[in-house]
Design brief:
The complex is a heterotrimer of chains A (about 350), B (about 325) and C (about 650). Chain A has about 350 residues and is of the alpha/beta class. Helices cover about 40% and strands about 20% of the residues of chain A. Chain C is α/β, with parallel strands linked by helices and about 650 residues long. The chains are: A alpha/beta (about 350), B mainly alpha (about 325), C alpha/beta (about 650). The complex binds adenosine-5'-triphosphate (ATP), iron/sulfur cluster (SF4) (2 copies) and magnesium ion. The site of one iron/sulfur cluster (SF4) has 12 residues of chain C, from loops.
Chain lengths: ~350, ~325, ~650
Amino acid sequence: MNASTAMWDKFANLSYGYSMTPPPFLSVRDLRVEFAARQLLFHRSRPPTRAVNNVSFSIPTGQTLGLVGESGAGKSTVARAILRLTQIQGGQIFIDGRNVSSLSGAQLTEYRRQVQVVFQDPYSSLNPSHVIGEIVGELITRHRGVRPGAARDEMVAGLLQRVGLGRFVMDRLPDELSGGQRQRVAIARALAVEPRLIVCDEPTSALDVSIQSQIINLLADLQASAGLTYLFITHNLAMARHISHNLAVMYLGYLVESGPTERVFAHPAHPYTEMLLASSPVPDPARQRERAAARSRISRSTNPEIAIAVTSCPFANRCPLVMDVCRKTMPAQTEVSGGGSVRCHAHATGLTFT
Amino acid sequence: MLKYGLTRLAATVPLLLAMSVLVFLVATIMPGGIAVVLLGDNASPETVTVLEAQLGLNDPLPVQYARWLGNALQGNLGDSWTLKEPVVGVIVRRMPVTLSLAVGGMLIGIILGLMLGIIAGLRPGSGVDRLITLIASIGVAMPAFWLAMLLAVYFAVQLRWFPAIGYTPLGEDPVKWLRSITLPCIALGLPTAALIVRQMRSSFITVLQSRYILAAHATGIPLWQVVSRYALRNALVPVVTVIGFRLAVVFSLSLAVEQVFNLPGIASITIRSVMMRDIPLLQGTVLLTALFVVVTNLLIDLSYGWLNPRVRLA
Amino acid sequence: MTDAAKPRGVSGQARVWWRLRQQRLALIAAGYILLLYVVAIIGPWIAPYGPMTGDLRSTLQGPSIAHWLGTDHLGRDILSQIIYGTRLSMWAALEAVLIAIILGVPIGLLAGYVGGKLDRAVMWAVDLIFALPPIMVALGIIAVLGTTLDTVMAAVGFAFSTRFVRLTRGMTLTEREELYVDGARVGGLDVWTIVSHHILPNIAPALIAQAALQFGGVLLIEATLSFLGIGASLEQPSWGRLLSQSRDYMDAYPFLAIPSGAAIMLAVLAFNLLGDGLHTALGRDTIVAKRKTKRRKGDTETQRHGDGSNARSLIKTNMTALAIQGLQVRFPGAQNREIEIVCDVSLDLKSGETLGLVGESGSGKSMTALATLGLVPAPGWISNGSVQLGGRELTTLPDSELRRLRGKEMSIVFQDSFTSLNPSLTIETQLTDPLRAHLGLNSRQARERALELLALVQLPDPQRRLNEYPHQLSGGMAQRVGLARALACQPSVLIADEPTSALDVTVQGQILDLLKDAQRKFGMAILFITHDWGIVAELCDRVAVMYAGEIVETGKVDGVFAHPRHPYTRALLATLPGLDRTGTRSVPVIPGVVPPPQDWHKGCHFYPRCALAIPACNRNPVPLTSVGDDRQTRCVRAGEEGLW
Ligand SMILES: Nc1ncnc2c1ncn2[C@@H]1O[C@H](COP(=O)(O)OP(=O)(O)OP(=O)(O)O)[C@@H](O)[C@H]1O
Ligand code: SF4
Ligand code: SF4
Ligand SMILES: [Mg+2]
């Protein structure tokens, strides 16, 4: 735990420009993504909506960063930006210290060898008209130049074995597999290029409870054996706590808090983080009833449906600690003792809610 | 709703302009050029040049288009080359016939189609449903002009209930007018009804299986209310789209049906214009169809907005 | 749909064939089309006469041995003309459809995949042409290029290509949103590979079905044009031309119009039927379930008599708000088998109590809820069991009476709040309709009551919201409206089917608080369906655990959490990652997956995955047995000392 805190300190500093060694594997600086409002051919375009605002974080090699937040917070947009599936409007993305946010052509292909993805929905993430052997083998051909045939089949079978599937699935269609099996195939496909970073966008939330832990264990084992780095997106705090070394919390496009997992859970610095923690039910009747009472006290008065000004703290309409300054200026990112950072005016003044 | 209506109306302007450009271009891309078509292939080059100069064909295209459009907006589409009289006059004279057929056929199609579609969709898989579906499949495949011929033979020639050919204007004798367009309208209406039945049935079934209908049942409101208020309106949305496309098709199908009943609509002049390359006449009829299509599409858009708040309030 | 709806263990191609074979009409149609093309090819050799050889001594004759379909006004053999016409019409249609596909599909793919400005420009142009009737477009082109059959069909093909552009583009747009396309991009594949190798194969089936349908349309247009004298020339015997010639002799000899007209109609019909069949067979999520409307009622009747008396005797006190006994729901499955989706569910719910119903996806929780309300969706039916609301048996009640109870005495909130609200009706309509139906309020009273209800569920600005449509609400707001609708008549039983699963945790907390408040106010019983054990821990007095269609354990919440008495409950609780559990990187797992209903074992349904399984478990259906204070479990080994 001490070790991980120390590690966090290092790369937190690094993301603000202090020279440090060793560098984090992935680091994102002031990322900004906007979506143009839908426009028609002969209509003036509406002002764009910001999906991600000045988000910065980094992940040390071989570790997992859990990215949590509710739907619409911008988690998947961050993932898609890193995967170069979405155009970014500002900021940089570094892999191994190299700026990758403007790569194209052969360099982009090379980048894609290092960064792979496992999506949330295993029912739509595998091409329904390709057999598993093709789905996994395709990337071997593309990136390692092995033509379809016995040699490639062997490699595919090896990958499938690593994710706990028999080679018999090779000539099955995705339709014929269960959700858990499909998710294993998606992981095998990601492994096919021998990546160093895997972006996991809610990889378990479409799965049965009893299957979720199978996938989590698999991911953890792969990390241990291959030294993979994960960006793990989830809205399940228990899951995030279980798998991640560090945690980042997003709210309406802003990274409101980040830090070592232990610290964030033990001493949440942002009111939203605290509300999230209080709202996540735990499977223990006595404790959960207590927690529910506490949660009601925090969240009862708040109303997510009230509109807020663009310049205000995005959480102002729901925050029990809201002050005048919150409605006027966006809080800056400040460091938190115990590691990490937070965006909240109250943090500086030491206010908390009880 | 008003705002939505105005937006849709405004959107038709570029559409009409684009159509007019297309229609205008038809004339200019004639192989050999208009002058050759007018004078015949044997004309001497000199006469061709003279005529081209006369017709202003040497001006740049935009200039020609502006001139043509200016005239068109003033109701002047030029003289028909073969009929030697103003195109607009010819069309205005013949228009009521074709319009009566299209509107009448459409009305029959919509009323019959919606009713049967609902009946079939209420009990999918039942005997009534299968019967209606079967008839509709056949109806969709039935060429309108063949149906027109069969109707003419039976109801006009053999039973003598209706005139087999000819048209009486509405102003002259409303009863005779009605009798003269009944069979053609049925011939156009039945295949249309068949098409609408199929769409109505399937969208009604889809809607009845939807979550919100289940939820409506769960609130315990009476069955007729669930069907009429909660299901019907939503089921109509895709049907309206089909009706929109069909309107245009009915307009063109009426060409063939007019021929069967020898009605003095725009069919014969359209065919004439195509066969004899009477460009002004062709431009006139195509422009007319375009106008008809644009107007009906506007109506469709409006009813679409009325049915679907997401479209209206977007 | 889950895996359950699909036949398993068959390869994809085999399944497509199987589905195609189910489409009998389409197969017949395909046979007929094949025949037409054979005739089109070998026509000149099988036609008894030349198409133009007439015998003026035998004009306008009826069918005879020499002339099977009679002769026309020039004494030409009609059958021969139809055969030659087949050649012409089928060929022309093929030509036009091929042109339409070759022009339309690539443009549609490109516009759909690239999107943006290109897409908008293409679609604008296409809509322009599409708005015009194809026949007019064709006429315009024909006027310019001339009236040979080839130009005509090229023109028709061009006119129809807009349909393929629209269709292809629409499907490509949908497909592009699928994650596998993103996956392919992340995999570094180039645009060409993604479009041709990934997207095209997935939209091809729908395109093929569409092509078949368009064939019909093209045939009709070709016939119409020929009928009008455009296209096939006088010497070319096309079907439409034949029909047009027969027109002059209709009065004297109507039969002349029959063969050619029928030929057109049958061909178009065949293409349409084939298209429909392909559409059904190749559609991605087709469920092939044959309907059995007739059997349903009879079945229920007999079985209910068998078990009814038994079930009734089990109802205990008047405290019981809802009692479900031995509930069984079946659906028709493949090969005329019946699939049992809810097997033997017994629950009872006392007034003011909250009962949690937990289980994994597909265990039958929602179906139990729907069956309780008498709302099992179409091909399914309640094949056994009893449901009593306040002592009144519901399964025998006619629909009209059930409706009077639904929404009034017993109501339901669904998980997907958006889809359970009607998109084209205002919130006011949807809230006041039940109020007016059940309480006889007039519209002003109903509106006032609706406002109260919205205030109760803490929807901000209720006045304005009443006039809005569902799509103007957020997920949390929509769920509040759903809750208001369910609480409208202060029911004695509220079924909540995962009402918070689609919501964010913070909103979930607020909805749970609302439910608790409402329960305190109205004293209703709640059946709360969820897969989240944390919610059970917070909200419920008792819990019932469902696995594969059966209740496997029920009991008081604290007891079940502390000492689960069924291996499934025990294993599941062990796998749950807790908020406060740290360090360990490996979670205990339950091996295998929840099997689909048709694979459920005859004995214990959990047998294939159970750590404690013994051969005895798989022999006979395991009954739910009582093990101590208000606790029941469905396990052969429930009584063994030391195991628990
Ligand atoms: N209309 C239907 N036709 C055929 N089978 C169906 C139908 N609806 C549901 N099923 C099947 O019934 C079984 C139980 O489904 P049900 O929706 O009750 O499960 P559930 O426990 O509510 O799951 P979830 O947690 O996903 O909501 C599943 O195997 C499902 O595939
Ligand atoms: S900045 Fe103000 S409103 Fe925002 S979270 Fe902090 S205290 Fe709350
Ligand atoms: S009956 Fe047997 S297989 Fe089933 S849960 Fe009990 S021990 Fe396991
Ligand atoms: Mg469910």
